[in-house]
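Weekly modeling sync, notes
Attendees: S.R. (lead), two postdocs, one rotation student

Agenda item 3: backlog of single-chain predictions. S.R. asked that every request posted to the team notebook include the full sequence so nobody has to chase files. The rotation student volunteered to paste the first one in as an example of the format we agreed on. Action items at the bottom.

Example entry:
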Amino acid sequence: MRHLVVHGALDLPGDKSISHRALILAALGTGRSEIHGILASADTRATAASLARLGRPVPALGAAVSVDGSGLRLRHPPADVALDCENSGTTARLLAGLAAAQDSVTLIDGDASLRARPMRRIAEPLSEMGAGIHWRGAVGNLPMEVRGGGLRSVRYATEVPSAQVKSGVLLAGLCAGVPVAVREPLPTRDHTERMLQSLGVDLVLRDGWLELSPPLAIPAARYDVPADPSSAAFFAVLATTAARGSLTLRGVLLNARRTGFLRVLERMGGIFDVHNERVAGGEAVGDLVVHASPLRGAVVEADEVPDLVDEIPALAVLAAFAEGETVVRGAGELRVKESDRLDAVVQNLRRCGVQAEEYPDGFAVWGGGPIRSAAIDTRGDHRIAMAFAILSVASGVPLALDAPSCVDVSYPGFFTDLARIAPIP
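Predicted structure, as returned to the notebook:
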């Protein structure tokens, strides 16, 4: 099953989560901010375009972006705004918080996939803060109208772990100038908190509550965006499942809330080293050197899922090469991502001849067997497309992706980088 020899190094695109937040905070700052290493993808361009519609212009995205901030509170926000968030849930939920703080009416919408994703979870805390929420279609789904302004303080306990909801509430409090507190059932990625604290914002975790006391302004800053660990996971799978060799992934974000995949990879027998560890933009960064290694199955429990939620499609492919059974539980949130990722992973693995079983909140994969050629239904989901492209290259078996261009959402140069490492069957 293993045939590939890997070697060389890759510079991966900037982290998507940090890129979104850097754009937003730069636009809210006072003065000119610089963003270096930003991800220029369909999702981040949706955020940039939406910020412009909200009266906060952002220039075209490139290797370095200069943003002239408009301050936390616009004196004359546009009265009526329509945002097309395209396929980006992060854009929709974070900018809903900003829109709720503006004295205007904002219609938030997106593509068919985004319209199917749950938005009640961000609408509820914003409604408690005093924003008017109106559903233009099905209740709980986009398009969603936000009537902003006059927000009040809130203490809100989320039912579902969600960094996007947490961030949306924090941004609402920040821009409206009212204190807010958020409590989560499980810790989620903390980039918004780190970035706000680096700007001097009074944000503390007290008795399980993340409490924000809003400043009058936030300063301009330089934001350095490290490489995306979710993108790195696909190439880590490729290197680990090779017959021999190693692959260096440079400048990868190593935030503890984003390294759950690496912890599971190590438990499955994966071998990697971290070189040149450093801190950039308040985040831990390092060069990952991932080695070919034999793999065994593992169990991923519910409390691990928030730290590897975006990497689960990559993990499923890793499991196809591992001896024995790999089980993922507590991942029901994947049913409301860009696609139903649990179903997409299991059905496509089965098409490839891999034994897999779907559970309401996860799946099981029995690995180590042969892979057969198949047509892959990506569901238009970038992470499903990348996962099965890696399976094809790692196994040497042609797999036909029905919508390969969907990778542009998070990694426009994915196939170019993949071809640099190994031929695509």
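Discussion: group reviewed the output briefly. The first helix runs from residue 16 to 28.
Action items: rotation student to repeat for the remaining queue; S.R. to check formatting next week.
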